Q: What sequence folds into this?
């Protein structure tokens, strides 16, 4: 009828967004039918599906943080450092180049759309200073003139793609720039034309360094004096085997006026592979004119390469497995070596433990749910290593007190005449402590206590059964011939069976030692 209204409620599923067409049909009692079609739009706030990951690097390296989010488009991004927005950092990826100590901190990103916003987890960036050494050549010989850092070998410079028979070492020209070492230098005959890294292409000076086992080489800076004639190179580029000569670590121009000039180009750190040598090739190119084959038209002197020797983390003391009772405190620890700074992340059954980022892990009042495998991931800028798993076994809270709490109410627990260790509330002649030790019911009178005496031709025997989990109880069987003097001397105790959580034990005493014998079982809670 007139004035009638209908309400349609649509509840989208979680994370469901977009548009859909729905049709609503209404029929009144008189058979009149009315249909309308609506366009339904569902918008959802952003949710972060991939969090940025913390990192540890050396100063001068590049770092990338990445986030992924879902929700109604368009989505915008704003990266922050220590809670402050970073200018122009508005993409899902934040790329930081040649980071320095000041760049260390906490990075997160705020993801926003028309419905709401979400903030990612904070990723911690740790930037370590590089402890470097500078290797120099004065070319009185082809080998470095300065001592090499410990664990590093090599460094002899050779010619590559020399255009003729030019001798590398020469004293025909004197370096005239500030700090020049003298007249010795290295030279070669360079071809003209653009950079050509192929065999018989652009000429280059080459040297190789090999790190000691368990380390890798990091190069952070380059400097050299250069002299180029009118037919010599007008540009240079340093390539290395660290990336299979794919990208130059340093580039620059050379003035082909025969004047000596010191070059200190911008340098992209060269990071070698663990245990692997790194070869450096300093190419000269873009020369012009007609170079004379065999005549040096490019010379270098006072070559200097700044390097560091890096050691990946190694675990020297593994965390140890432990077995404890519920409610106990537990500490796992690890000892590791490697280039500082080392970072630590403890895990439980492979899952990261929040805040567990030191070389030791302390768990307070552990419960059975915390049992399992614990390991730690140790990281530095060189590598990551994971410790062996330490197994934590947590025995259920037990013992006589827990047994009392299970079998007696609060009023009974307050009355030691009922719940005390020597009490016998069911009047069956068996004290509570013995009831606990033998796995009996303290408030139900048993017709027997589960013990039995017998004899064979050679020995007297006393047999009793006990729960297998009563590890806090000491069981002692003593013998007597007069019910006055009791002793465990001569009594041997043997476990004869384990079944359904119970153990059967048999005490034996030689028949030859006594015409008759009495046994008694003594139990003590540890």
A:
């Amino acid at each position: 009828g007139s004035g009638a209204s209908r309400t349609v409620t649509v509840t989208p599923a979680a994370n469901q967004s977009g548009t859909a067409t729905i049709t609503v049909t209404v029929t009144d009692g008189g058979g009149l039918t009315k249909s309308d079609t609506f366009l339904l739009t569902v918008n959802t706030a952003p949710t972060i599906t991939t969090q940025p990951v913390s990192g540890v690097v050396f100063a001068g390296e590049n770092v990338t943080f990445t986030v992924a989010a879902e929700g109604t488009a368009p989505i915008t991004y704003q990266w922050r450092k220590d809670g402050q927005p970073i200018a122009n950092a508005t993409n899902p990826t934040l790329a930081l180049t040649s980071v320095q100590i000041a760049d260390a901190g906490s990075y997160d990103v705020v993801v926003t759309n028309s419905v709401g916003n979400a903030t990612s987890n904070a990723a911690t960036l740790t930037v370590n200073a590089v402890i470097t050494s500078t290797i120099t050549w004065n070319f009185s010989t082809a080998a470095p003139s300065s001592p090499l850092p410990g664990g590093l070998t090599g460094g002899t410079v050779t010619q590559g793609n020399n255009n003729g028979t030019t001798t590398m070492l020469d004293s025909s020209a004197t370096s005239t720039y500030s700090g020049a070492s003298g007249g010795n230098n290295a030279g070669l005959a360079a071809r003209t034309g653009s950079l050509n890294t192929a065999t018989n292409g652009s000429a280059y000076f080459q040297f190789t360094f090999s790190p000691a086992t368990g380390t890798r080489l990091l190069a952070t800076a380059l400097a050299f004096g250069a002299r180029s004639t009118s037919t010599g190179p007008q540009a240079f580029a340093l390539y290395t085997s660290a990336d299979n000569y794919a990208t130059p670590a340093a580039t620059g121009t050379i003035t082909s006026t025969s004047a000596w000039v010191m070059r200190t180009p911008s340098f992209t750190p060269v990071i070698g592979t663990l245990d692997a040598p790194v070869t450096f090739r300093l190419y000269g190119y873009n020369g012009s004119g007609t170079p004379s084959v065999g005549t040096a038209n490019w010379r270098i002197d006072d070559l200097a390469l700044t390097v560091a020797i890096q050691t990946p983390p190694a675990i020297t003391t593994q965390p140890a497995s432990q077995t404890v009772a519920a409610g106990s405190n537990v500490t796992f620890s690890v000892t590791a070596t490697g280039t500082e700074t080392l970072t630590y992340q403890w895990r439980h059954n492979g899952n990261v433990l929040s805040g567990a980022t030191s070389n030791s892990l302390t768990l307070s009042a552990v419960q059975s749910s915390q049992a399992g495998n614990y390991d730690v991931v140790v990281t530095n800028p060189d590598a990551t290593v994971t410790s062996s798993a330490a197994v934590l076994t947590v025995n259920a809270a037990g013992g006589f007190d827990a047994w009392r709490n299970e079998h007696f109410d609060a009023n009974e627990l307050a009355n030691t005449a009922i719940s005390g260790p020597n009490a016998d509330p069911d009047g069956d002649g068996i004290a509570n402590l013995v009831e606990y030790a033998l796995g009996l019911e303290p408030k139900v009178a048993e017709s027997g206590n589960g013990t039995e005496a017998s004899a064979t031709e050679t020995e007297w025997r006393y047999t009793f059964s006990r729960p297998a989990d009563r590890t806090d109880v000491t069981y002692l069987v003593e013998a007597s011939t007069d019910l006055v003097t009791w002793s465990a001397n001569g009594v041997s105790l043997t476990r004869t069976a384990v079944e359904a959580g119970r153990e059967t034990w048999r005490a034996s005493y030689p028949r030859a030692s006594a015409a008759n014998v009495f046994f008694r079982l003594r139990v003590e809670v540890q």
User: Anything to note?
Assistant: Helices lie at 399-407, 410-413, 416-419, 432-438. DSSP finds four helices and 41 strands in the chain. The chain has a mean pLDDT of 89.
